[in-house]
Input
Amino acid sequence: MSARLLAMAFAASDLLFELNGDRVAFAVGAGPVAGLDPAAAWPGKTLHDLLGGACRARVQAVLAGLPPGRRSEPVEIMVLTGDGRGRKASLRAFRLPDLGPAISCAVQWIGEAQAVAAPRGQPLLDARGLLRRLGDLLAVGGTGPELAVDFIEVPGLAAADERNRRAGERFGGRLQSISVGAESAARLGPDRFALMRKSADVASLADEVRAAAAAEGLDLSAVTSRADIGDADAALAVRTLRLALDDCLRDGAAAGGGRFGEHLRRAVQDADAFRAIVRDRRFSLVWQPIVALDTRAVHHFEALARLGKDTTAPTGSIGMAEELGLIQGFDLAVAEKALAQLRRPGFGLTRAAINVSGASLASDGYVDGLLKMTSAVPELRKRLMVEITETAAVADLDSADRRLRALREAGIRICLDDYGVGAASLSYLRKLPVDLLKLDGDLVRDIGGDAKVRAMATHLVDLCRELGIPTIAEMIETEAQAAAVLAGGIRLG
Output
């Protein structure tokens, strides 16, 4: 019976083959040209290897949308013969439910083989293009393959030599052809490449380098490293990849290909650890007093976060969280813990300041969360101040202004922290609704002994006085500093 069914299939087709994923698992029938036996030559090859570039996307779209038990409409294809020619054919695909993910394909040849132009590959991406491409692939939302990112460094390829140039182009073209969709490879520098491909694809990239170099009479080797992306959150995956690429490119050869996977894994691990700290509230608050420098009466307290048993500020972790888009959750968790302590007996009418990263003001989430958190006890809002820290610049001042005004209308005051260094500028004072301004500690530290610093601080204080904005001095460690700051017109510290 099986022989009869096979005979009937051949009566309607010249060639039959089965796809498992995008690779040929089995083939039988007549090849596109004499001497090419698909049964021997095709198994293990991908559609990218076998088809002309113009029809690849069309065939992949048909296969991806093919429901079980249905046969596709005919699709015209161009099958490459490996000798600069190709033969047109009509392909129909059938997905049999009993055979799982495998897809059966039938081919009918059309005309004779003819010369075809060599397919022109997509140009290599740069680092930014690679990140955009990763975001596009992950945004599909689970419908695509699990991805891996490979980083390749080829010592010696950067030499200014025509053969090296041709080898680099040859190798780059090959990387592009085996990357996801044949458009997911990038050249990050003269001797550095990266590509995204399916996690299941473990073909040696070092072998590809040697082959490309040998074709130009060169002897080059490569250092490769890989990190799996898996089913990661799209935004987080893109940000962690950017951090890893930045680390690898920043320090030159010392941070080359062999360490890329390490950088990416560490970024993912750090992100997971930080999210666990926020989720489990594994941080504490210490309360820094802000006092009137003349009377030393407490004006308010600043709630400062400390991670775990660490008694120092979590500067590195905060910077990482801002880079990876995790800071908003942490800022809200700090607010939650501070508000809980303000409601405890003994805190009376104590006023408190909580820090918020400029990155958290990039969306409505932080403001909405804080207002919801205080809605049950609205009188707490009058005891609360939000300090915009300068670890990350406020990207959209107009949107931040709108969000901060919503807090002020609810009774929460706004303080601009770390003013005088970093990303802060006069635009902040002009566009944001600021109630208090805190001078950066680097200015305060040198205000007594550096005439330039003293002049800068004096001008800032005078400006704030004209705007009706009280100023606070940070990092006052000595009585001499306190006296110098007070003499400069700053009343709080």
About this structure: The longest strand covers residues 103-115. Confidence is low (pLDDT under 50) at residues 253-257. The two ends are 92 Å apart (CA to CA). The first helix runs from residue 2 to 12.
